[in-house]
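USER: Please consider what follows.
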Amino acid sequence: MDKAGVQSASFKTFDSVRDARKRIAKLCEIDDSQRINDFPVVVVILSSSRGGSSALFSALRATKVFWCLPGEHVYLYKLHGFGLPDDPLAHDGSIGPGADLDGLLSALATECTGPISGVLTANLVAYHFVSRLLAQWPMLADDPDLVLEAARRQVYRQGSCHDPVALLMAIIRELRDIGYAVDPWYYDLPANVISRWFPAEPEPVGPPSAGFTLVEEPPFLVPRAFPARPALASSQRRPLLLKASLDVYRINLIRRLFPASELRFVHLTRNPAASINGLMDGWLSRGFFSHQIDRNYAMNIEGYSHLPWGQGWWNFDLPPQWYANTATSLPRVCSFQWRQAHQHILAAKAEGAGTWLQVRAEDLHVSSGRQRALVHRVMKFAGVDSPMASEVGELPVVMATAPPRPGRWRANAERIAAAIEEEETQDVAGALGYGSRPTLEWL
C-alpha cells in the first residue's frame, strides 16, 4: 500500500474512533459540547522527547492547582484533523487541511479535570474508560455499545474506581473473552502487574500488530475517571497546564487554540547524554511508535533497522528533515531529535511571543529540596500557589523504559559519545547552559 493508501486508512480510523466516542458520550449522558477556551492563563511545558516533561507534569498535577488532561493530547490532534497531511515528507509541524478547531476544543474540555469536587457516577467511570480504550484499540470502534456494556459490568462488579488498574485489567479480560485482541502489555504498567492478571500472555515485541493504525501511541495511559465538572467558566480561577512533546513544532497552533489566553511557556531542558540515551532505549522498546514511514523512505538506521519493524516505524517526534536521517546510526537519530526540539523552542523564544521560563529536568532527581524548589518556581511563574507544592513527594515512574537512576546514561557513554560530540549538538547544549562536555551535573 502506498503512502496515500496508508493515510486514507488512518483518516478512516480516526473518523470511526471519533464517532464512536461521541456515541459513548451520548449513551452515558455526558455533555461534550463545552469548549476549552476561557482560561486567562495557559501554561505549556515544552521539551524534547525523553526530556523529563512527564515527570514535571506529574509533579505539577499533584499540587492540585492546575486544570489539566490525564496525559498528552496528541491523540486528540489526530481525531480532529490535526494529524499529518497526506504527504510522505510531512513532519510533526505539519497539519492536515481538514483540521476541526471547534471539535478539538470540545474534546479537550471533555478530557480536562481540575481541583474540584463532584459526584463520580458509574456512567462517568464507564465513559472515561471506554473513550480512552477506543483511542488505544481502534478496532473497538466497530461496536462501541458492546464495549460499553462490558465496561459497565466491570464497573458494577468492582464497586468503585479507587483501583483504576484493577478495573482496566478486568475490562481487558472481558474484551479478550469476547474476541478482541487487546494486549495488556502495551500499557504503562510494571511487568509484574500485567503478568499477575495475565500469566499466560507472552510479553510482545514491536508495535501492537501489523497494519495497526495508532491513535494513542504506546505505552498506553491507564484510564482514570474523574467527577463531573462545573461549567468551564470556573476555570478562570486556575491556569490550564498542557504537555505534549510534539508541541515544540506546534507553538503557533497553541496560539491559535488560545488566542485570548496569556501563554506561559516552560522550557524544560535535559542534558543531551541523558536524553539521547533515553530516546535510544525507547526506540528499542515495545512503545513510543509514532509514525509509519512511506516505503520509498524505508529506514536503514544502524542499531534499529535490523528489527522486523525497523525499516517502517519511526519512534517519538518526527522533526522537519527527518528523512535526511534515515540512513545513519540510532544515537545520531536521537541526537537529531533532541537538538531539533530545542532549536525550535529557542527560535520561538527569540520571536518574543509569550512569557518564558527555562528550568532543568535534573532538578527533579537531585534531591527532594531541589524538586520542591523547581515546582515552586514553576507555580510562581504560572501565578498560583498551594501548600501541596511542599508535599509533592516521590515522583511516580511515568513512561519509563527502566527505573530512573541519576547518570544512567554513563553505562552507555561509549556508544553515544560520537552523537554528543556532533558540532550542532554541542552548539545546542551550550545554548541551553550545559557546555560542550559532560559533567557531574549531567544526570
About this structure: Residues 1-8 have pLDDT under 50 and may be disordered. Strands lie at 41-46, 67-68, 240-243, 262-269, 289-292, 313-315, 355-360. The longest strand covers residues 262-269. The chain is about 40% helix and 5% strand.
